[in-house]
Fold these 4 entries.
Entry 1:
Amino acid sequence: MNYSKLKPFSDHFLWGASTSAYQFEGAWNEDGKGPSVMDMGNHAKDISDFKVTSNHYHNYKEDIALLAEMGFKTYRFSIAWTRIFPHGTGEINQKGIDFYNSLINELLKYNIEPIVTVYHFDLPYALHLKGGWSNKETIDAFVNYVDVLYSHFSDRVKYWLTINEQNMMILHGAAIGLVNPNSKNQEKTLYQQNHHMLLAQARAIKLFHEICPSGKIGPAPNITAIYPASSKPEDIIAAMNLTSIRNWLYLDMAVFGTYNDIAWSYLEEKGYTPIIEEGDMEILGDAKAKPDFIAFNYYASSTVSASKNDATDKGTIGDQQLSLGEIGVYRGESNPNLEKTPFGWEIDPIGFRTTLRELNDRYHLPLIVTENGLGEYDKLEAGDVVNDDYRINYLRDHIQQAQLAIGDGVQLFGYCPWSAIDLVSTHSGCSKRYGFVFVNRDEHDLKDLKRIKKKSFHWYKKVIETNGKDLSS
Ligand code: BG6
């Protein structure tokens, strides 16, 4: 629909950006921090340094001053579970509490609203050794951990996110360290882990509502529109299959407290159904466990066609070599209507509006975008200049579509692109940059880690200043 007049972003719209602890903080074993699966895993160790990353742990004051200079209204960051509990449970590490207290206070000094993700891929390694999310005790450890976070920080933190991209963790479990890539029956294991994570999330949300009635909490999956490759009816069914398996399985449980029917039928067909113990569905269906809003990450749409029922259904996409396609369910296709980033991710701003509409139609909850952005090989030019016009174009096109979605009736209350400042990409090291601020380092040569404002820094500052009215560069 074309509108003759655009609805504005609300006066209190939360403009900001995001980071995650293991990609940004560094100090991986300092001040009592224990190891996480991301520290110990082999996801990208060979291609980059993950121990120092952007050294934010030691540089947070300068970093937050830069966010304040851009005029941030909010900043989404994650807490490293292993800074609070080095072994996942047991004694609290006071230095971890101190660090996040200082970080939160520094944000509030500049009137930047903190948004805290409690778990962004970095499960404590000690819990992993005891079976990780396959072990139901991890649910109790998680609830104990969030209880400590709420009691220390909820006096100043209003917005909380439970689990970052649970759906990506389950769909690409070996890549994110949930299962051993060589283990058998990985999917069956992963869907049991998924059930446990859903229980952990429900209990964490319920607890939050009991002890922080004035705060807000929600999940943070990666959600995207899935297109059928053609108008063939069988392609439409394939797109619905993937939409249910990738998107609704997670959000229907969070919001409605039920397993999505199509996703459940898929689990049954494949033999992946989790064991559901007595009492589990009561926990999942508890009205107090319902989120107050949905946060979601969006980078690209996906396109699929009907399965051919043979091995060719399973292909790969993009730089992460993620498989897209499953025999008897759907096959991944590239979309000829879309351009791709140098890392092979399709760029689809209109798909962003579609995704916002779909989420609104289905759940009628307020929405916030907690990741959206362009990974690129930025070049530092003479005079400390980074001309990242491609990033400005990407973000501008997405913000325009977000505004159209607001016109469609979507209750969008914030936009936090990825990432505030350069950090280490999960799979592609630090050559793949996302930030508004360049961090001067290479994969293994840490150089001086100096912060350098990119062209997009100045552009985003103006976007925020004008509350999204001036998107010109
Ligand atoms: C999201 C994650 O999946 O995508 C981030 O929440 C990640 O942690 C981001 O960095 C971009 O992916 P990548 O592989 O380019 O770093």
Entry 2:
Amino acid sequence: MCGITGCVSTQDCVPLMIESLGRLAYRGYDSAGVAVCDAGGIKLRREHGKLENLMALLARQPLSGRTGIGHTRWATHGRPSESNAHPQTYKKIAIVHNGIIENFMPLRAELEAGGHVFSSETDTEIVAHLISDAYETCADFSKAVRIALARVRGSYAIVAICADCPDELVAARLQSPLLVGLGNNMNFATSDISAVLPYTRRFIFLEDGDFVRMTHDAVSLFDAQGKIITREAKTIEWDIRAAEKQGYPHYMLKEIFEQPAKITDTFRGRILSESAEVNLDAPVNALELENVSRIQIVACGTSYHAGLLGKYMIEKMARLPVDVDVASEYRYRDPILKPDDGFIAISQSGETADTYACVKMARAAGAKILAICNVMDSSIARASDAAFYTRADPEIGVASTKAFTTQVASLALLAIHLGRKRNFLDAERARTCLEALRRVPSEMEVMLEQSDDVRKTAQKLLRANSFLYLGRNVHYPIALEGALKLKEITYIHAEAYPSGEMKHGPIALIDDRLPVIVIAPKNSTYEKTLSNLQEVRARGGRIISIVSEGDEDLSKLSEAYFTIPNCDEFVQPLYSVIYLQLLAYHIADLLGHDVDHPRNLAKSVTVE
Ligand code: M6R
């Protein structure tokens, strides 16, 4: 979704802001803009489309200033266009905004009745008008922002500049992420750590209702009443190179290849081989989830698929009932959650609006809340009782890959931990499981060498206009994940079904044009899946399969097949998903799509 950057410095901040906007582009956007304060007042440059368009405009009409704000917009209110791009300005005020102002229609009507003329269709512009009106009355910029925001309902991360205060940024947050970056003779307000990571590693994570006023050498925080508050600054350890492509054509491909290393990082210090125990981080241990009566998992998209695998693993290893819900459904269906329940929110970004809302519901219900997140100190992580970090480093590709496998690896550790604590998993079985997990990174490296073979298969599938993904048991969530990857970056329709459901409808789809991607390594349901595939074959279906090494029966039925190591069923998903990620990637790339910036999608869905 939209990205925010704001900078107040002793030097020209425009080049730095453009670089930052480049780092925000991965979030998904349709227009971009910057505004600065200089001696002549507010100066604005905006363009529809790619950041390159804005850069070309800046080359024709240069801009400079020590204080500025920038934005990449993903349209919600108002079509993508130059006039709807941010910053939005009114008189002496310019603002950038992430989120949605829910009462913008009555506010706009009221302002129009008072003589205000609007230049955009956005909800954001009304905030610039409100701040301007308040500023004309109180002549205090930060107070004007507070007065204006007291009138709006919805969610926002806002950064504002004022022509009369050329060395000052004012920012505020409510249910939309915003951070303050503390630099050397420069300070930042940003929606995203990686946007300004080259300039600082020290960040203050704003809380809902916080306001901040900053100059190049001072930052003050206050609440809605204007009372000074304090927030601790944190140092971010992320390696800045993790947010670079490092020679790969796309972030997604780089991130697929990073998975062995990131899973190793996820395991580091958490597997105790001697005792066959899992050492979760102290706050997670302290939650004592082993004592809850059931666990509710909530997540969206790829993280939801990881949650489905979490159910298989936790129920099997710890015999603890687990329900899994898509967050946007859960939050509106009056769910039953009790104080003796455990609640797990899974989110790469830690900022997904629906998942965040569910965490607040779990808090109200008194459940024990664990966040499984990648981004440290993200909103969901902070709103939970404890956070388990997946250590995947920044994930830039919109299509989630390394976040997924590190989430699954984390859930596997949690399942073993709960199994041990609840005495359903003996030390020998736990040791076998942990050893199987330990082998994943090196075995995965070998599988990744087959990327070129996957590309050759992808080449043969480019004309298909629909795909069916089949899997059973732990491979059903993987089928769902494979279909999601394909849809989001190739724009080809794909559907996933549990293999056992074939005869209940989807078998009618089978013909010689429909590629059927089957995930069927040797496990407890292998024989049954094999029968389902005979039925597909008998109807002329094209089978591309993921099989265990040495499986001749299934490979003979398949137009193409890829092998995973012979291993315990519960680690198989960590292997099988790799081929599905690669298949989607290569099809998208061969079709000429912008793999890292799929149309209409945003990396982090921070509005409903
Ligand atoms: O940051 P989150 O894990 O909460 O994001 C959830 C989904 O938006 C995300 O997984 C999305 O489905 C991915 N683009 C899928 O590749």
Entry 3:
Amino acid sequence: MTFQTSDAAAPSAIAPQPGILEIEPYVGGESGAPGANRVIKLSSNENPLGCSPAAQAAFAECAGQLAIYPDGAHVRLRETIARAQGLEADRIVCGNGSDELLALLAQGYAGPGDEVVHCAHGFALYRINALANGATPVCAPERDLTTDVDAVLEACTERTRLVFIANPNNPTGTLVGREALERLADALPERTLLVLDGAYAEYVRDAGYDAGAEIARERENVVMTRTFSKIHGLAALRLGWMYAPRHVVDALGRFRAPFNVNAPALAAGEAAMRDQEYVERCATLNEAWRDWLVKRLAENGISCTPSHGNFILAEFGEGRAGAADAFLKARGLIGRKTASYGLPGHLRLTVGDETACRAVAEAVNAFTSQ
Ligand code: PMP
């Protein structure tokens, strides 16, 4: 998915708000490979097993009620999430993908003259959302492709309104510990909101990991965002949620679209959240095949960052990543180039099912044996 910029964006009397034309449009994962017999999409970190059968059934049941508006307060879904996660339902906000929640946070809290801090290899939308609201994105350096809390703190000023950290991060897959994040939350300037993006939280196996719920629970300056697009396998429905202090819930509730989440998404999301057994099965399989794939690549001299998500970041070296991407694509394996993230020597590959992982390992072996 690519939005085209064009000459139509040339100066005109009718100009968009400051910052908009500085945005490099988000480029989503490719899904086609011309000439390949079969295609395995490993470019968007989707769940290779799909969604829970219960979620699929709940979605199908909605087909007879499409004339009816959805519940704009998302009461049942929020209560289901709250029960499953041990949270307060009135501190949960649901959105049209966590993308929407990230955008609402930026719209609500950052404007001209404000700064938004993100990490060097942080998710692309943080910068886009800052610019879209006329705010200035500020990039904090990382250490070993991992969030460096001290560098984040150094990047903050009195103008910083938001700090976005994905944990695990996309595209690096690396993790930062709870203690470091708590230290960050407590040392941020008074007017700064910390957003912990847990899009890949369910895949993490580290004891002591907290996606943000525990960090946010007792604090007024921390928000956690989550998605149904990854482990729950509902990317097509666009559904995300966040856990936030009540003052943030109140602010976003004043301007979000009244029916921002559609009825099939609400129904499928409820069923998916109840099916924690399915979540666990997907996480177990992901871990097994991720570790297997990392080992196979290492045998071929390709190292990966220690990933805690459902993808790996494989280092082919500058000048070779493009060739590796083309080689894989010719075999129907569609990965994601990461040059736009400042990682021109890497490729990000979703951990697929057994067939996909074996195909990737074989292709990388063939590529490196050339
Ligand atoms: N955060 C991160 C770190 C992501 O990788 C993604 C998806 N690529 C999102 C948020 C947004 O996901 P969604 O809008 O599908 O919930």
Entry 4:
Amino acid sequence: MNLKKILVLEDETSIRSFVVVNLNRAGYEVVEAGTGAEAFEKLSRHPDIKLAILDIMLPDTDGFEVCRKIRTADPHIGIIMLTAKTQEMDKVMGLMTGADDYITKPFSPAELTARIDALFRRSENTAGVEAGEIVQGPFRLNTRNRTLEKDKARIKLTQVEYSIMKMFMDNPGKALSREDILNTVWGRDYFGELKIADVNIRRLRLKIEDDPTNPTYITTVWGFGYKWGL
Ligand code: CA
């Protein structure tokens, strides 16, 4: 079973542990961060994070700024802000653009998991309505008309390149063997050479990478295949 992954950004270790323990108990997988910088690093390493819990007062930035940046990169991720009783709620609400919900400290484990479950239910419903799009980082793949955008600019793909992109974006962070790519994109009865996968991926890199000579989205897994990540 694939556990839903949640990012918890909180610099106070006692509160963070409290949240982590309770989320684990509720069956969620948790990725922890203590600073804004660490949060972004973890998000890029775990593109399958579905929800982020963000504290507001952080050592290197504030939670609102982190929220804004996450939201810009990913319109679908769920975001819950952790607020303190001492914070003025008017101000918090005004700054909360992009967040889906907030929880005021101190909170009970039951309250925490109830909010998270509710948000997941909501985002699953929205995902149903908006099925047909995969958005990851600057990339937006429209699976209805089989098109790709990077930073809102259309990238022209062949059908094979599109199928490879779709396979990558369906499997973020997972090393895919050249055989897997060949089987999925060309079909199991294709008897061509594995090299065709390499040729197409080289061409795909020219189209989607910031610097194709130093690819960062499609990375090579030596002796095995390729991996998609942000
Ligand atoms: Ca804090």
